[in-house]
Structure prediction request, 269 residues.
Amino acid sequence: MTKINYHIHSTYSDGRASILEYVEEAARKGFNEIAFTEHLAIRPGSMKKLYYSIDVSKIDDYVKEVREAEKSLKGLKVKAGLEVDYFPGSESLLKDILGSNDLDFTMVSIHWIGEFCLDCVKYKKAFQIAVREEGFDKFYSKYLKLLGEAVESGLFNVIAHFDIARNWGFKTSNDFKMDELMILEKASSLGMVVEVSSKGLRNPVNEPYPTRKILEYCSSIKIPITLGTDAHRLSEIDSNYDSIVEYAKTAGYSELATFDRRKLTLAPF
Ligand SMILES: [Zn+2]
Ligand SMILES: [Zn+2]
Prediction:
């Protein structure tokens, strides 16, 4: 049986614990494989990283440290990934950065719509006002447009927290959108993977990402999944882990995707 957590942030980005601390904790909690997914967040046009991003010049050190940490504990696989913020027009910048290192995989995230951060407490009020003014459907469409562009770019292996735009608890008027379906079809044709994330269970929406409808659709078109808790501290390494295992199984999944130098493998869980 495979127990994996494919979404962990260390102090290389905005996490609170070191790589080695997580590795030791993961071994204690019975994981077979974990993956670090440091944020990479750079707006095109400026080479300035956002405050929660890894420094581009540190990516090689980061990958090296992950490889070393893996050697320190027998029986635990440890992978190096990046959770990359997609901004419109950032394709060529990201191509350069992502093509020049030894990462196991990349995940794509939409955290920003324009100047507006989706899951930052600082923006919660502004978010609620914007949604009240334009309606959540319209807002969610903007989010999905960006996610669609990101998938289209072909730069990424995994879609992180597919519908995180719902994090403050807003619901769309239909529970399944045409745009979502098209994104998933495209992702499937590119051999991408969707993350099942327990982060939503710590957010006001209080549900995993993605919704059950979306996950069941993924299952029906055989898009592989990973599991992730989006850990930013040691205590989050197995946050609601059993819930997402159960959630994925009841949506029809019996295998999990893992990556080694961009090569995908499926293992039963
Ligand atoms: Zn994220
Ligand atoms: Zn994350």
